[in-house]
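Q: Fold this one first, please.
A: Sequence and structure below.
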Amino acid sequence: RDPTTLFYHRAQFLERLQKRLAIKPASGIHVLACIRPDHFSTVQKDLGYIESEEILAQLAEHLRLRLHPRDFAGRFEGTAIMVLLERGNENDAEVWGQQLVDHIHDAEFAVGDKKISLTCTVGVCAASGVFTTLEQLVAATMESQQRGRKKGGNTVQLNESDDGDSRLRRFDAIWVKHIRSALMEDRFRLAQLPIAGLRGEANGMYDMLVRMLDEHGQSVLPSEFLPAAERNNLMKTVDRWILTASMDFSQAEDAQLVFVRLSRQSLQDSSLVNWVAQELGKRQMPASKLCIQVAERDAAKHIKNTRVIADGCRKMGVPFAITHYGVDQTRIQILDILKPSYVKIDGELMHSLIEDMELQNNVRELTEACNSRNILTIAERVENANEMAVLFQLGVHFMQGHYVHEPEVVLAEPPRVATSSLDAIVNS
């Protein structure tokens, strides 16, 4: 290992990276991040080349404390540190990067009696099928970090290259074909993620996820095909499949409440609320057993459309939820606008929750704000008993994640796509 950072040397890191990328994560995606301190030549000038290595060692220790159990890092070149992350999606990795940037900005660095301020820039790139070689992925990640430095540093930068865009179009063309054929051939499947109560029983509550089977019957994770579906206007069809399949699952398993998320495209679908009402009526299913959920970022960006859907859900008795919810006070206003029945606390916060007292206070304030509005809270992506204990103390009502239960695929065989949806796919 590198003696300064105690991370892997470059060669060992790349070897481990190659092996890990060959194995699909159980959920979410792999994301490569490049972290480099800003203006480190100034630090070397002030402290000297030998003592400046101690600053880099301190930076590495701050980084180490923010890694998840399956993340690993290596000193790549000079002051650059590469990290392979496993996250739900690229946005989660971006949030992680921004949290690291903010943390380094506020941290104290010192050698002897010499104290310095330090910032860093983080480049982030999802390890998707867009990249056909490891070299392309590493280069795109380094380019993202360099782009952030050119903007002044102290920031996180996602990969946005023109070459990546052209590769992305070719990548999408393949996935669109697979998605359409999977819909036509009934190769979509539900996966149920149970929700557990922290303050009592929560029998029969499930977060509904989607999987796609390829032509060989192998499961394809949503992180692989949903981004392509979103970029190519297929999400309304996919969302409606998930909604009807979830309704059927609820009736077959006598589930008390199923949570189904909507994409940005469905938020802008003016016919959605009436369609949901019709599908519930066909099944004579109580509206209270279906919960429509929307990510906070999407809700804030499309607040008028989201409010129409939230109000429509309330009128027909369908609960409404906000997911991936942050905990700072500036976000409270959205609760009064959308009046959700449930708020799901962003799972990216769980890793820092045990040791971050300020974050704990923010979560406690959120639960109190929700309680005063008769909103129930659910913690996302809970991974261990320590997180569960802290959440209980903070007043959170429910939790979901791999500590509760791994997603269980429901291999239901009956067709799930309405004739109109099939026609739309064929015509397009």
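Q: Good. Now the second chain.
A: Here it is, same layout.
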Amino acid sequence: FKRRNNIDAFLCASSLFERAGTTNQYAAPTADLQQLSAKLHCLFGVPVDPIPPRSSFSLQRPNLSLSPSAKTRMQTRRLATHTYARAKVYDLRQYTNGTLWGPFIDDGSQRVDWEKVEAIMIVLGFNLNKFSDRSDGRWPKVWDRPFIGATPHSYRCVEPPKPPIPKEDSAEPENEEISKIRELALSLSAQDPYGVTGTWMRVVCFLDYNDLYAFNFSTRIPAEELRDPIDTEEGIIDLAESIKLQVTKIEPAGSASEDDDEDWVGAAGADGQQPSCSVSDRLPVVHFRGRSRSLHASWDPNANSAIRGTVQQTPAGDIRWTTFSIFHGEERWRSEGIQVGGLRSARGVLGNWFDRDYDVHGPAGPTAFWKISDSCEDDRSSGIPFAYY
């Protein structure tokens, strides 16, 4: 993919490029090929977000068969790809029961919609680069090397494990109950196939709610019509957030979950496709708890929260992450994501966050998190396992 024509042909052929991209980038002729191109783009990992050259603007001719809004779009300047991706991410029609409000096909099958994941990656990639440019080097570039972390088991801890504190050096003897919980947590972590326990970095972005509401509800359009690109900058809930996670429970695959509505989730999709990974062959469901701390807005009490969630394997074999953000004991936000690259990939999880009660009016937006350390201790930690809370 060092050649531009290969990038255009293979990475820029999802339905997003029916409107976005340069004059050399075209959507593939079938939906399946569009999904495959989007998946390859996500595995490539470096968002392709070109601004069309000025010479392409004059080549756009009006098509009188198009709707008035479409004709206007065709005759005006073409925008960067991230503006079209942003329109897809913030189109609240994408958040349905069938998609589990996440990056899935709208049929309850939990099959990944790679075109949604691609749009999320492009939007977050643009915001991360912008944040890095404005940080004077304090925030390094991420997602800037092709195919890094895009394979199963590609995560490797770069920090040496911290030696345990000898009991005789401890200021106070550890409570017996806490000691038992700690031993249980260590045992569960050893059984966890997903590598949950540790420190993760998370990014969460949002569109100003007034803009989000106007974008979705100011004009009624047909269900099949795409919304106009969004050329406004997003706000940031957290563009640098440290999450400490620890396993709290492991259940067999297929166990009923209070977090999923059984009416939404089916074993096969609406097209009748059977799961490629049977329940007996799937990895277990792992529950976890933890806490998040903003790295650039730690003074804001609403920027820090408790976290709980699950990670499990979908019927198609993908790795699905569900998280809940808890403020003052109340669950406020939920996220659904998919681990790009598969089990224990270093690439991390891309997905959507939204209101815990599925508010159809939003807010909602893109999120991502990736593992940076196997340790979940920090200087402020009390040393009490998360399972204790």
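Q: Anything worth noting on the second one?
A: Strands lie at 198-206, 235-251, 285-294, 305-313, 319-327, 330-339, 349-355, 364-373.
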